[in-house]
Amino acid sequence: MSADSPREVGERIAARRRARRLTQTGLAAASHISYATIRAIERGARRPSDDVLEAVAAALEVDATQLRTGYVGTERRVNRALPELSAVLAGYDIPQGPPTRTPDELAEAINAAVGWRLAAQYGRIAAEIPSLLHDAIRYTHAARSAEQQTAARMLAAAARTADALAFKYGSRDLSARLIDLMRWATDRAEDPLVQAATAYVRTEVSFAAQAHAVGLAALEQAIEAAPAPSSRSEAAARGALHMRAAVIAGRDGNVGAADTHLKHAQQLGDQVAREGVYQGTTFGPDSVRIHEVSVAVSLGSEHVDRALRLATVWKPPADLPAERRSGFYIELARAQDWAGLQADAFESLKVARAAAPQHTREHPWAREVASSLRRFHRSDAESLSHFAHWIGAV
Questions:
Q1: Per-residue DSSP letters for 104-118?
Q2: For the chain, which end, N or C, has fewer CB atoms within 10 Å of the first or last residue's CB respectively?
């Protein structure tokens, strides 16, 4: 049961509704919940059930954990979705009839799911991705020759979205299988930008296995194979690979390679000029700055000053995707904890949680920092203890 009172939940819902310029009637229509129920919830006269809370959260385009502390419905949905995804993957190379959606409907649904991934709305993904991935596989097999490349691109995007659940919720074998599906789709897409995106995601296998040198070599091969950065999309594809190469080089302790790749990413970020989502990856000057902190933290505690210096002069803008903003504050918290700035580290974790609750809750470094703070930081003990319980650090 949530520690929040019905009034606190209602106030959060009302604040989110007003921020989206919705009336109570509009929210009722968008969530398919009666006006009387919405009104009672916002007054604090009624505690919403899990189903009602999720419907309201979906209408407000937020994760339900942003409305009610300790909500575990997302975990339940993800745990149901993972075996369903495994079953879908069992026969991905075998034609199984036409998809249930039209190509336009499938494209629209996949684009929406990609947006949920960037916003770290894992509960919404879990509810839709098994059937969506199944349809994308069916469409890839059934598409006419003129549609084959488009179908394969859609399948790669759907598989990547499914992988967000598998990887972040610790299902490493399933994640590897989904990446194999991405590669299978990429071969059929015959699109160098999709190939670059798949190489970017494939590095998760190296991170999970701590095979950092191998992951760096694979990324450097992908950079060589990527198209010349003559357009914004091409520059973003190459720049994203350099960003990830800088981080994995940092994890490998290779300072020279990390700095070299980060410099190339900065140049390409300047060329792109404005932040955007390219082949499902957020890239631009702001993403590169976030990766500067990530590289410093990856290199270890002796490089903590690099992370702290950047954080004193720059913060991620509010319009950056939630998962990326949350990641910045989680890594900043780790640097602050190393530097003995425990109060600052706790504040950073709280900002990360506000941006993307489920991403923060499932992030091992966030859990590690919360556990460290709980052992050694005594001020604000009650709030910290509550946070540590929420994130599973006790």
A1: HHHHHHHHHHHHHHH
A2: N
Per-residue pLDDT of 250-283, as tens digits, reads 999 999 999 999 999 999 999 999 999 999 999 9
Query: What is the average pLDDT value for the chain, to the nearest integer?
Result: 93
pLDDT of residue 381: 63
Angle at 17 between CA 391 and CA 320, to 5 degrees: 60
Boundaries of CATH 1.10.260.40 in the chain? 1-71
Could you give the CA distance from residue 27 to residue 12 in angstroms, rounded to a whole number? 14
The owner of tokens 């390679």 is 257
205: three-class secondary structure by DSSP? helix
Going by DSSP bridges, is the β-strand pair 276-278/281-283 parallel, antiparallel, or unpaired?
Answer: antiparallel
Q: How far apart are CA 91 and CA 200, in angstroms?
A: 25
The b-or-e profile of 43-56 (16+ CB within 10 A means b, else e) is eeebbbeeebbbbb
The neighbouring-strand residues paired with 281 are 278
Closest CA to 303 of 363, 254, 356: 254
pTM: 0.87
For residues 329 and 353, is the Cβ–Cβ distance under 8 A? no
* Cross-strand partners of 170: none
